[in-house]
Amino acid sequence: MKRLLLTGASGFLGWQVAGHAQDEWEIVGVACRHPVPLPRGLTSVTTDLTDGAAVRRLFAGVRPDAVLHLAALADPNACQREPERSRAVNVTASVTLAEACAAAGIPCVFASTDLVFDGRHAPYDEAAAAAPRNLYGEHKLLAEKEMRLRCPQLTVCRLPLMYGPPGPAAPGFVATALAAWRAGQPVRLFTDEFRTPALTADVAAGLFLALRERPAVLHLGGPERLSRHAFGLILAQLAGVDPTLVQPCRQADIPMAAPRPADVSLDSRRAFTLGYHPRPASEALRTLLGPPF
Question: Do 242 and 127 sit in the same domain of this protein?
Answer without folding.
Answer: no
